[in-house]
Amino acid sequence: MSKTVRLQFRRFRPWIGLALLLVFAAVILAACTPVGGPAATLAPGQTATPTPVATLAPAAIPLHPANPTDPFSLFAFLFTPIFQALFISLVAVEQATGSMVVAIIVVTLLVRVLLIPLYRKQIVSQKRMQLLAPELKEIQRRFKGDRAKVQEATQAFYKERGVNPAQGCLPLILQFMLLIPMYSVFSSGLQNFNPTAMLRVFGVQLINLNCPTSPSLNAAGHVIPCINSVVFGVDLSQPAVLFTLPVIGLGISILAIASAFLQLFQSRMTLPRRDPSTPDDQNTKIQRQSMLFLPFISVFYGGFLPAGLFIYWIVSTVFSLGQQYLIIGWGGMFPLLGWDPAFARAHKPRFPVAIPTVDPAKRVANSVLTVTDERAAKAATTIRPRERGGRQGRRGRRR
After folding, report:
1. Which band of pLDDT confidence, cut at 50, 70 and 90, is reported for residue 190?
2. What does the pLDDT look like over 262-288, one tens digit per residue?
3. Per-residue confidence at 77, pLDDT binned at 50, 70, 90?
4. Can you tell me whether residue 197 is helix, strand or coil?
5. Distance CA 237, CA 224 (A)
């Protein structure tokens, strides 16, 4: 592979990763979507020949734990414990408060409170990487042209400073893995006419909803779910589409737009504050571009994702904003459209992150970075400083 191709690959590597993430998300959504035919058109109380299970709508089939018989069912089986924990918590709070919106907010806050230590590590890791960016650039400058030495020196640098860049990725993966069963909770649990089996753990029925034994249909011919998820006229188990784009036919949701704006604010806070006198490097430019691209993409999710999932997403993002504010402050939120308030410039975080210092116990012996630093220190002690008022050179003495 030529040097030009390698440089182009490194330049577009974040976008390639983003494309793979979107493809993976599409596969996950396809795997989580129940498979079934059109809904039955029988009126309540009408009897007919039993319809085969394969031709019924998914909501007309009683919800029960998956049986690992194929790859898709195995995937659902692995997520069943997480699904049940979220679904049971959601139904319990809804039964206690009588509001599905309150239940979603409470469950989201409980999840985020439990994950505070993990997300704190992510925020601290991102901030430390920003503080160490100038020294990493110096390493790249020092070993410019030798990629192997740059990688070796970078790894030694991370170890000496006690920094693990992978800590910033784990919460993102966990958040995505929680998003999958939460999507199933709204798309399958709240739409099903009898999810009683998913409220049973080790043979103990934790919550009894008194669901019907057979599905009933409304005037539109849709299956009536056992759990009422309609709040202020909005069915939280269905996409809340405000209007549809005429050209591509994709629905737009107010909740999706609100979620996108909050994600945009969250991304700006994670970036370092921009210095007008110092231009951004290539990595920072890519981060700022993806910061605008990702929330824009999430706007189009409102056309097919349940409204309850966006409420979960909004509450989770607001919680993240508060957690980031306490650790890194306003970050790169300002200047915003030319507005740079004084309270943002003078703000000091409640739990600031200090730049990691060298840990002698973790110093890598005989590494490229250590040997180079030792040579530089030894050279600095052996070079005799030039004395201006001292002895003159030969040319000066001849004069």
Report:
1. very high
2. 999 998 898 888 776 776 667 677 777
3. confident
4. helix
5. 12
Residue pair 257/299 in contact by the 8 Å Cβ criterion: yes
Q: Which amino acid is located at 250 in the chain?
A: L
Q: Name the DSSP letter for residue 279.
A: -
Q: 183-192, 274-283, 321-330, 345-354: lowest mean pLDDT where? A: 274-283
Q: How many CA atoms lie within 13 A of 43 on its CB side?
A: 2
DSSP letter, residue 275: -
Give kind and range of the element (H or E) at residue 130.
helix 116-131
Burial category of 257 from C-beta neighbours within 10 Å (exposed 0-12, middle 13-18, buried 19 and up): middle
Q: Residue 234, Cα to own-chain centre: how many angstroms? A: 26
Residue 163, SS3 per DSSP: coil
CA dihedral (191, 192, 198, 200) in degrees, to 10, reads 120
Stated as kind and residue range, the H or E segment containing 32 is: helix 3-32
DSSP-derived secondary structure letter, 61: S
- Cα–Cα distance between 155 and 168 in angstroms, integer? 16
Instruction: Please report which confidence band the pLDDT of residue 5 belongs to, taking 50, 70 and 90 as the band edges.
Output: very low
Full DSSP string of 212-260: -SS--B-TTSPBPPSS--EETTEETTS---SEE-TTT--EE-HHHHHHH
**Distances from the Cα of 338 to the Cα of 204, 268, 303, angstroms:** 60, 15, 33
For residues 233, 238, 243, 249, the Cα torsion angle rounded to the nearest 10 degrees is: -160
Instruction: Pull the structure tokens for residue 166.
Output: 């992978």
Cα distance between residue 206 and residue 199, in whole Å? 6
For the chain, the maximum distance between any two Cα atoms, rounded to a whole number of angstroms, is 122
Residue 155, beta-bridge partner list = none
